[in-house]
Amino acid sequence: MRFLVLSLIAAATPASPQPAPMTLRQAVARALERYPAVKISEERTAEAAAGIRLARTAFLPRVDVLAQLNRATRNNVYGMLLPQSVIPAISGPPLHSNSPTNVWGSAVGFLVNWEPFDFGLRKAAVAAAETVRRRAETAIARTKLEVATRAADAFLTILAADQTLMAAEAGVARARALDEVVTTLVRVELRPGVDAARTRAEVALAQTQRIQATQAAAVARAALGELLDVPGSGIAVEGSRWLSGPDAEPAPAGPPAHPALDEQKAAIEEARARRKTLERAWFPRFNLQAASYARGTGAHPDFNTGGAASGLGPNIYNWGVGFSVSLPVMDFAAVGARREAELHRMRAEEGRHRELELELAARLEKARAALTGARDVARNTPVQLEAVRAAGEQATARYKAGLGNIVDVVETERLRTQTEIDDRLAKLGVWRARLSVAAAEGSLDVLLDE
Q1: Structural domains of the chain, count
Q2: In whole angstroms, what is the distance from residue 309 CA to residue 289 CA?
Q3: Rounded CA gap, 140 and 150, in Å?
């Protein structure tokens, strides 16, 4: 009755839904959608776009509006006061004596300041801001390639770990089957007891290998889960089509058109644009200015004061229009030093671009060499596996006939398990090498299409 009740409960309990297998394209798409590095690059691009709008505001006139109300004494003295920001300025003639009398004061006005021409300084600043945005946009492409490559590599790592686990489980099953046969032979005293001890050791060794494979699969899923922002334990990958290599060699590509190269070109243009801005920094600044203001005060020119509300509102009005020219004479040395610094920075970026070209070309050449080697290995492992299987069957038959020893049997079985793992990983190794080639070329589109 207890068994029947437990069986009914187990039958009534709904099975937990298994996650749908994920394809490589889906894994890459989810990583690009969810991984924070892509979002960070996109926000930096938006920040650079806002910087362009900020640079363009320099073409607009500046309008400052002021309103003020105060209650203060009116004592004034003759003499000069150096420019500072602590002591408030006061207008009017000095008094004959120091008096604590205080009056109301008020002021309201505005100042318009506009630079009609600047010898291209503001335009150069806008152009420099646009180069910052272009560099940020190319950084997005580079970041997406890096994230997509990491996601694809993690996907293939999961497949490799799963295939290793399957081969390890098959090895455990064969080790147990051999142990049962040997144990039976030992029980009827057809084989010495040491043979049974050896097969039990092989079972334990196969189980250890399976545990390690299980651990590797869990770690690989955790790595992909980090990129997808999901728990790694809930990831299932579609792996049926990956046990055969790509149909053909990838077509030879020209010089690498890598997003990192585009980003480095944008860095060179950014340094060049900043230097161009500094070339126009030591030019005269022309400003057209217009001001209108009104002031009110409770202090009269005859040193008397008005009523209690006198000065609360403006009663004296002025306006003015003018044109001013300013030249920061002593900034010439500083601007020259900054221009020289930008020149060296631009040359450093050009050198980095050349270094990156060589690095990417070497990376592509290494990836293609690795792909060739991976294809050769994938063609050779089936031959090796077939030979190992035949050797294992022969060793087992010789042992059962009493012509061989247990060492030959367990060694061939262990070699068979390792060769099965190598054969499965060799097929996936071709895809992994193909991924390296695509990453070095700067685009995973062809690989995803395959």
Answers
A1: 2
A2: 34
A3: 15
Q: Per-residue confidence of the chain (450 residues) as pLDDT tens digits?
A: 554 444 544 444 444 455 678 888 888 888 888 888 888 888 888 888 888 888 888 878 888 898 998 888 888 888 888 888 888 888 888 877 787 888 888 899 989 988 887 888 888 888 888 888 888 888 888 889 989 998 899 888 888 888 888 888 888 888 888 888 888 887 877 777 787 888 888 888 888 888 988 888 888 888 888 888 888 777 878 776 777 666 556 555 555 578 989 988 999 998 888 888 888 887 888 889 999 989 888 888 877 887 888 888 888 888 899 988 888 887 788 888 888 888 888 899 889 999 988 988 898 889 889 988 988 888 888 888 888 888 888 887 877 777 777 778 778 888 888 888 888 888 888 888 989 998 888 888 888 887
Q: Any idea which residue has 């089936």 for tokens?
A: 382
Asked if 272 and 409 sit in the same domain, the reply is yes
- Smallest Cα–Cα separation from 375: which of 251, 242, 249? 249
Which residue, among 444, 262, 255, has the nearest Cα to 353 in the 3D structure? 262
Q: At 406, which CATH number?
A: 1.20.1600.10
Enter the tokens of residue 304: 């008397």
- Residue 7 inside a domain? The answer is no
Residues 309 and 322 in one domain: yes
What is d(CA 175, CA 362) in angstroms, rounded to the nearest whole number? 46
Verify that 258 and 314 share a domain, yes or no.
no
Together in a domain, 415 and 268: yes
Asked whether residue 157 falls in the same domain as residue 207, the answer is yes
Q: Indicate whether 300 and 411 sit together in one domain.
A: no
- What is the residue range of 319's domain? 64-116+288-326
Separation of alpha carbons 338 and 333, rounded Å:
9
- Tell me: do 278 and 293 sit in the same domain: no
Q: What angle do CA 146, 147, 149 make, to 5 degrees?
A: 65
